[in-house]
Amino acid sequence: MTTPDFAEITKTRPEKSLITPLKKSGGRNVHGRITVRHHGGGHKRMLRLVDFKRDLFEVPARVIAIEYDPNRSARIALVEYPDKLKRYIICPLGLNVGESIVSSNKKETEIKTGNCLLMRYIPSGTLIHNVELNKGQGGQIVRGAGTSAQIMAKEGDSAHIKLPSGEIRLISLDCHATIGQVGNVEHGTMYIGKAGRNRWLGIRPTVRGLAMNPVDHPHGGGEGKSGQGNPHPVTPWGKPTKGYKTRKKKWYSNKFMVKRIN
């Protein structure tokens, strides 16, 4: 089992004004039926209210702490504005306590890690994260630990953004993005090490279909150790899985794809 060293963490208790209780669902919907398998248990958590919109423009904020967030792989930074208002943001790589960052709609704003700008004012080739898909909606993509997108080119009113998956997508130049790469880059190299650690994270055991009986799964049954028997792997309900493409052919966002990965 490997764990991060938490060397960047400077504050162990969350800001009380920025947390709210987080209720567990156990993977169940409003009718009490399991709609997401393998969810349940896990350590009790409080939800940190992260500012993905960064909508206090032209007001500098000072980083006063770097904190751990149990609800995401990235670290979060606690920033304070001149009027003593505090907010959490996704902590980019290289952002330190004491530094000043700003969210701006002006062209002359410095291209600096942690600053949030309109896409039209960010030079091509710059690494970005917390990217908006629609103007004013707040960052929705590229928020996981160690991830970053890159502005490949600008054409008309859109920018060509290369996402961490390798997909290239058109995003409006009027959308905001934050400069830099998301921190905690070693998250992807962590080794869980034991089953109990997954239980701490709220992940329940997964049983292979091959180990079940025919009544429970299409891959089940057979004498001795046998193969799945299907021409392709399927879910417990008979739908193709493990690499089967599920994206709709006429999905509304297909027109924004320059290079697809599925």
Protein architecture, described:
With 262 residues, the chain is an all-beta fold. It folds into two domains: 16-186, OB fold (Dihydrolipoamide Acetyltransferase, E2P) (Beta Barrel); 207-262, Ribosomal protein L2, domain 3 (Irregular), CATH 4.10.950.10. It is built from one helix and 15 strands, in the order ββββββββββββββαβ. Strands 7-14-8-11-12-13-15 form a seven-stranded antiparallel beta sheet, with no helix packed on it. The longest helix is centred in the last third of the chain and has 6 residues, at 195-200. It is globular. The model has no long low-confidence stretch (mean pLDDT 95).
Topology:
Layout (H helix, E strand, L loop, with lengths): L18 E3 L24 E3 L12 E7 L8 E5 L5 E5 L9 E2 L14 E3 L8 E3 L1 E2 L6 E3 L7 E7 L2 E5 L5 E5 L3 E4 L15 H6 L56 E3 L3
Antiparallel strand pairs: 1-2, 3-4, 3-6, 4-5, 7-14, 8-11, 8-14, 9-10, 11-12, 12-13, 13-15
